[in-house]
Structure formats: structure tokens, C-alpha cells
Design goal:
Layout: H1 2-9, H2 11-20, E1 28-31, H3 34-43, E2 50-53, E3 62-64, H4 68-79, E4 91-94, E5 100-108, E6 113-115, E7 120-126, E8 130-141, H5 148-167, E9 174-183, E10 186-193, H6 200-207, H7 211-220, E11 237-243, E12 249-259, E13 262-269
Antiparallel strand pairs: 1-4, 2-3, 2-4, 5-6, 5-9, 7-8, 8-11, 9-10, 11-12, 12-13
Helix pairs in contact: 1-2, 3-4
Length: 279
């Protein structure tokens, strides 16, 4: 329904929904006045350095500032400079969370969920997490460094989201995407998308390999009953999608292992036709 889609189309609605249902997320406040937003940034007792256009902005409506001055400049660009058009008429100012960011998706029939393997995409344009956010510069899946107990907590977050939408009379049916920050206090939701993520979906689909799984996707689709099944994986495999600046795509299917706190891969180029997440 249109109201269920507000989980993505309105960040202000999404944050209020999370607060109502006890879903962990960053501290926040929404504003329609840029001066009030800047006053909040300067007075908050936490680093209120994340500025988001509340509406849909093609993945480019988020600014992560290093200082209060940068955060206020982002507010002015979005609200007065109309950088995001009408999507920026309301902004959400959030606490800056520290940790590893991952993407967690599930199928849902409005009641039960089936989780997909976690993925990680890299949005910033330049190496070293520098430059503006893009629709996605690359991704890989799964993430062996995420402990099982953390995955259980994330599954609970997704289930509580589906339960909350049902309780509010707007059952969510389809694919639910949660952007998660793995903080020292546990996983916290950064945002929801009401769709597959790009480029995450492309790498998830390559490691989710079984006839049963693909039958679920292509024949039952998101309207079938997931029945709580988990997505089977090709053991030891990882898929990565690298979007190059010349807009060519290099896809690799690899063996992955965990060494000295880093993911190591031994990859070969794949001929699979994957599409870059660039506008």
C-alpha cells in the first residue's frame, strides 16, 4: 500500500515508526524550518551531523558532516538551495553512528519473513570513503564477519518492522530492505527501502543458489508465503560487483575467507551481466 511504502518515501515517517515500535535507530528530529534544524545541530548533546532529505532523492539526499558548520551547510543546500527538490522540504537531522554499515533484505508476506544473506555496498564516489554519495559504487555478499548472534538481532528487527506495519493496518508485502549500522550497542537501522537494493540484489542473487530458492523468487514471488525459510548459500562463495568510473562493470565470483580481521577473496571474473548502480 502507499502507506506501507512511506517506510522509504518519508524518512520522518520511518523514524517515527521505529520509535513507536522499539526498533533501534539513531536519535533524530525532523524540521521544516532550516534555522530550527541548524539550532538543533548546534545544541544537541550528541553529534547531530547526519542530514537527510525526508523524501525520495535517488540515494543522494544524505549528507554526513564532519562539523556542525558542514551539517548546517547541508541543511541550507537541501532546504533553501533545493538540492533535492521537493524531497528536501522536510529534513531529518540524526545522530552520527559509528560502526560497519550493511544491507539486510528479506521477503515477507506481511506476517512471516525469509531473510537473505547480508551484503555491503559502497556508496561514496572516491576511494577511502571520500566524495559524495552515489547510488552505489560496488557491493559484495555475504559478509562472514557478521556474527550469528548479530544476524539474529537483525532478523528480529525485520520481523518487528513487519509486525508493526501489520498492527498499524498497513501490512507490508514484498521485499523489505534495511540499512543497518553495526554499533558497539548493537545493530541500529539507518533506513528502510521498499524494494531490492541496487547493487546489493545483484550480488545476493549470485550467492543464493538453489532450485528451491529460485522457484520461490521467480514463481511465488514476494506474494507467496515465505514460511520462515532461510536463503541457502553456495558454501564459501562471495559475489562482488565493482562499478568503475567509466561505467563498465566488473563482476567477480570468489572464494572468501576470514584472515586477520579482513575478508580475503580469491576471485575470477564472471561473465554474468550485472548492471551498475550509477545514474
Amino acid at each position: 500500500s502507499a502507506r506501507a511504502a512511506c517506510l522509504e518515501s518519508s524518512k520522518a515517517y520511518s523514524k517515527a515508526f521505529m520509535d513507536r515500535h522499539g526498533i533501534p535507530t539513531a536519535r533524530w528530529k525532523a524540521f521544516e524550518c532550516p534555522d530550527e534544524a541548524c539550532a538543533y545541530i548546534r545544541s544537541a548533546d550528541f553529534p547531530a551531523l547526519v542530514v537527510k532529505a525526508s523524501g525520495l532523492a535517488a540515494g543522494k539526499g544524505v549528507s554526513v558532516a564532519s562539523t556542525q558548520e558542514e551539517a548546517c551547510e547541508a541543511v541550507m543546500q537541501i532546504m533553501k538551495g533545493k538540492r533535492c527538490g521537493a524531497a528536501g522540504d522536510t529534513v531529518v537531522v540524526e545522530e552520527l553512528l559509528e560502526g560497519e554499515e550493511i544491507s539486510c533484505l528479506c521477503f515477507t508476506d506481511g506476517h512471516s519473513i525469509t531473510c537473505m544473506p547480508p551484503a555491503q555496498d559502497h556508496k561514496q564516489l572516491c576511494d577511502g570513503d571520500r566524495g559524495p554519495n552515489t547510488g552505489g559504487m560496488g557491493a559484495y555478499a555475504p559478509m562472514p564477519q557478521v556474527p550469528v548472534d548479530v544476524l539474529v538481532k537483525i532478523e528480529d528487527i525485520l520481523q518487528r518492522t513487519v509486525d508493526g506495519m501489520c498492527a498499524e493496518g498497513s501490512p507490508y508485502v514484498g521485499v523489505l530492505y534495511a540499512g543497518i549500522m553495526l554499533t558497539k550497542d548493537g545493530p541500529k537501522v539507518l533506513e528502510f527501502n521498499c524494494r531490492f537494493g541496487d547493487p546489493e540484489c545483484q550480488v545476493i542473487n549470485e550467492v543464493a543458489r538453489s532450485d528451491e530458492w529460485h522457484n520461490d523468487i521467480y514463481h511465488l514471488g514476494s506474494l507467496g508465503n515465505p514460511s520462515g525459510r532461510r536463503c541457502p548459500l553456495g558454501v564459501g562463495d562471495v559475489a562482488s560487483l565493482l562499478t568503475l568510473l567509466n561505467q563498465k562493470v566488473e563482476t567477480r565470483i570468489s572464494t572468501t575467507y576470514w584472515l586477520h580481521g579482513k575478508v580475503k577473496v580469491n576471485s575470477q571474473t564472471s561473465p554474468l551481466p550485472l548492471i551498475p548502480g550509477l545514474d
